[in-house]
Design a protein that fits this description.
Elements lengths: L3 H16 L3 H11 L8 H11 L5 H11 L1 H16 L2 H10 L8 H6 L3 H10 L13 H6 L11 H13 L7 E4 L2 E4 H8 L3 H9 L9 H4 L6 H9 L9 H6 L4 H9 L13 H7 L4 H9 L7 E2 L2 E2 H8 L2 H9 L8 H10 L16 H4 L1 H6 L5 H10 L13 H8 L2 H9 L14 H11 L8 H10 L4 E2 H6 L3 H13 L4 E2 L5
Parallel strand pairs: 5-6
Antiparallel strand pairs: 1-2, 3-4
Length: 499
């Protein structure tokens, strides 16, 4: 870790480069400060440097350096991130190298389930149970820690810490800042950390199961037990987006649980009708039948598109057949007929569509197909028809970024051949390489994906590799690949927080 003086010099150099119009410097500043109004002050550039070193601010970095020493403080920051992101190999290495790394830092001691240290801290300072340490209060440090994945044997210590905190005033309905927004500690335990025992403890001690986020994310793959727990504790799915989320994964069991708990297929204005969503998410005929039996409207429309038309345009034959048999509208416009032919494998050379004339739902058709398996041929036919292959869709994610997030190397290579905008940043601030790395850790269906191959393709196309990214990558295979690439191609390595 550089010294404070060296970091100050880095801030000075960044300021000079930024003032000279250097594009790399501008990207680093924008990464941390967003579109901050000019003129920027020296403190702004110090803030960027601190953020790149994993600290929230320059004052926090400076204080840590003066109290702990900069190397130790940097390791502590890295440990916090590893516990939050579930980077168990990093956590193991840091604690093996420096067993007392968390000593005296209550947030870290809580995240590591050090019940003796927590007891002592609260005995000396009971108010610490409700005081923020960094970006979170103690109960959130507990809830968002993924240390239970590494040390399931500490379950009782973890639950004892929960009890100690609540007895000293901590709120089981507390919330904390998260990349997705401000989220409850119940969300942290159940959906961020996949910590079912702690989530159950929080619910038993008064956590609100209807916090606006937890139920939605409890419908994602591998969380049936969590969804069942929430529903048993009174979570109400009616009027929420939980049912469409379960349909995103064609999850019959989760959909049945939600319907039995009171969810309705068509929840009213502003909500996509169930059969329209089933069509566009390639739900099978059995799912469509389940929804029809629950009262879904076969003639429902979404953004000027009928459920039947959406099924045909997506190439979802099973859904189209069930909707038609149930009495749904089956007419297709000329445009929908062309799109349906593309979905069914028919090329239409010499025929083009003007994207500007398409309903919004069809303009994003390529982005929707990116997230589904075996769609390359379909996408190629749509590109030949004139659909936009680089159009940002939901959350500003472009098709090439979507392919990277999903770990679909074959599809990523195809989009790269079309020369998309590789400088585009989505609404999360992620570039192509950053989206690939994030997907390697968080994409719901990453088990069968190849994110390393995607990262290799992106780097072969000349994308820079920020130095800190190598260390921050959570998936071991990805981290090893990036480290090897950085060693082989040092000229491609740049300063900066994230790619």
């Amino acid at each position: 870790m550089p010294s404070l003086d060296e970091l100050r010099r880095k801030a000075t150099l960044l300021k000079r480069a930024y003032g000279a119009g250097d594009s790399a410097a501008a990207a680093r500043v924008r990464e941390v400060l967003g579109d901050a109004p000019a003129p920027l002050k020296r403190a702004d550039f110090l803030h960027v440097i601190a953020n790149e070193a994993s600290f929230d601010s320059w004052p926090r970095l400076k204080t840590a350096a003066e109290t702990e020493g900069l190397d130790r403080a940097a390791k502590q920051q890295r440990l916090k991130i590893a516990l939050f992101q579930g980077q168990n190999h990093v956590t193991q290495q840091l604690l093996s190298d420096t067993p007392d790394l968390a000593r005296g830092l209550l947030g870290l001691e809580i995240a590591l389930y050090d019940v003796q240290a927590v007891r002592a801290a609260l005995w000396n300072d009971p108010a610490a149970a409700t005081r923020a340490f960094g970006p979170r209060r103690p109960i959130a440090h507990l809830a968002f820690s993924r240390y239970h994945q590494l040390r399931p044997d500490l379950r009782e210590d973890m639950l004892e810490i929960a009890g100690l905190l609540v007895r000293h005033g901590a709120d089981v309905n507390d919330a904390a800042d998260h990349p997705q927004g401000r989220l409850s500690v119940l969300y942290g335990a159940l959906c961020h950390a996949d910590n079912l025992p702690l989530a159950e403890w929080l619910l038993e001690h008064g956590a609100n199961p209807d916090d606006g986020e937890t139920l939605y994310h409890a419908t994602e793959p591998g969380r049936h037990a969590g969804l069942r727990l929430l529903l048993s504790k009174g979570a109400d799915p009616k009027g929420t987006n939980a049912l469409p989320r379960a349909m995103d994964f064609n999850d019959h069991e989760a959909v049945r649980m939600l319907l039995n708990a009171g969810a309705t297929p068509d929840d009213g204005a502003g909500t996509i009708p169930a059969l329209c969503h089933a069509a566009r998410r390639m739900n099978d005929g059995a799912m469509v039948q389940l929804l029809l039996e629950a009262g879904a409207d076969p003639s429902a429309r979404w953004r000027a598109c009928s459920a039947y038309a959406l099924a045909r345009v997506m190439g979802n034959g099973q859904a189209a057949e069930r909707i038609a048999k149930a009495g749904g509208e089956v007419s297709l416009s000329e445009t929908e007929t062309l799109l349906a032919r593309a979905a069914e494998g028919e090329a239409t050379p010499g025929t083009f569509l003007d994207p500007a004339t398409l309903p919004e739902e069809y303009r994003n058709l390529i982005a929707d197909l990116v997230m589904l398996p075996d769609t390359r041929g379909h996408i190629e036919r749509l590109v030949a028809l004139g659909l936009e292959y680089d159009r940002p869709a939901a959350m500003g994610v472009t098709p090439v970024q979507g392919a990277g997030w999903a770990g679909n190397a074959e599809l990523l290579a195809y989009f790269l051949s079309l020369r998309p905008d590789l400088e585009h940043r989505n609404d999360h601030g992620g570039s192509l390489l950053g989206t690939i790395i994030h997907g390697s850790e968080h994409a719901p269906q990453r088990a069968g994906a190849d994110h390393v191959a995607c990262a290799r393709l992106a780097l072969e196309h000349g994308l820079s590799l920020p130095r800190r990214t190598v260390d921050m990558a959570g998936a071991p295979a990805m981290r090893a690949f990036l480290a090897d690439w950085a060693a082989r191609f040092p000229s491609q390595v740049t300063e900066g927080a994230t790619p």
